[in-house]
Amino acid sequence: MAIFNLKKREIECKIVYYGPGRCGKTTNLEYIFKTFKKQVSGEMVSINTEGDRTLFFDFLPMGLGKIKGCDVRVQLYTVPGQVQYQSTRKLVLKGVDGIVFVADSLEVRREKNLLSLKDLQENLRDYEMNIFKMPLVMQYNKRDLAQQGIPLMTVEKMERDLNRQLKVPAFQASAVTGQGVGVSLKECLMLTLQSLQKQFQWAK
Ligand SMILES: Nc1nc2c(ncn2[C@@H]2O[C@H](COP(=O)(O)OP(=O)(O)O)[C@@H](O)[C@H]2O)c(=O)[nH]1
Ligand SMILES: [Mg+2]
After folding, report:
1. pLDDT tens digits for range 74-125
2. How far is the CA of 24 from the centre of ligand 1 (A)?
3. Interstrand relation of 71-78 and 136-141 (parallel, antiparallel or unpaired)
4. Residue 27 alpha carbon, nearest atom of ligand 1
5. CATH code of the domain covering residue 81
6. Distance from the CA of 139 to the center of ligand 1, in angstroms?
7. Are 5 and 11 in contact (CB under 8 A)?
8. Nearest 5°: CA angle at 185, between 135 and 125?
9. 181 CB less than 6 Å from ligand 1?
10. Residue 171 lies in a domain
């Protein structure tokens, strides 16, 4: 749930990069942090969680408009993906306004993607949020590895696995080269802002 800061005339919201361990969430955030420097305010904050990190930083989307005359400030988060960090993952989802689900295109990670999506759905449900109503985009990451002859799932297969029911916007990406990283974020921001606009429709 976004925070309305009347004094600063700002709305603060939270976007979380979710997905299995090693799918490329941190790499996405690092790419955004260095590529969209002008829209980043402050530092990247890292919270250590034994062996993995929860990362976040403030991001000011540009050209996406205001809500009720207020600027929108976004916090971008990643969660630790490993199974054992279930509690941290859940905590990071608290108050989430939009999600980029990063799926790993490696054939061998198929099951991990499915489990992570299920885990997301359950964690949201525990917060009384519905994945079908959540501003959400899919990112099929590591597409660059095809060139190295590494077996990847086809996009069609990933769509069937992960997006058959959700039917959310999906993007192919390579977080290491940055391909598809900006568009995934932009689409998620747009959906999030649209949703916030509806939520604040009646606010004075
Ligand atoms: N080839 C390739 N490697 C990637 C890509 N995204 C992430 N990686 C690598 O996958 C590993 C895990 O990435 P990381 O961002 O730490 O995953 P996280 O656990 O989801 O945060 C690292 O070695 C990254 O360099 C990608 O798009 N292509
Ligand atoms: Mg990470």
Report:
1. 999 998 777 777 888 888 999 999 999 999 999 999 999 999 999 999 999 9
2. 4
3. unpaired
4. 15
5. 3.40.50.300
6. 13
7. yes
8. 30
9. no
10. yes
User: What is the residue-averaged pLDDT of the chain?
Assistant: 91
Token pair listed for 157: 């297969």
Is the whole-model pTM more than 0.90?
yes
Please state, in angstroms and rounded to a whole number, the distance separating the CA atoms of residues 78 and 74: 13
Is residue 198 in some structural domain? no
In the chain, the number of structural domains is: 1
**Which own/partner pairs from 145-148 qualify as long-range (CB within 8 Å, at least 24 positions apart)?**
145/105, 145/106
Domain limits for position 171? 10-176
| Ligand 2 centroid to residue 67 C-alpha, Å | 31
pLDDT digits (tens, 9 = 90+) for 149-190: 999 999 999 999 999 999 999 999 999 999 999 999 999 999
User: Does residue 165 form part of some domain?
Assistant: yes
4 lies in a domain?
no
Q: Which of 183, 171, 196, 182 is nearest to 96 (CA)?
A: 196
* Residue of the CA atom closest to atom 2 of ligand 1: 142
At residue 70, φ and ψ (nearest 5 deg) are -105, 145
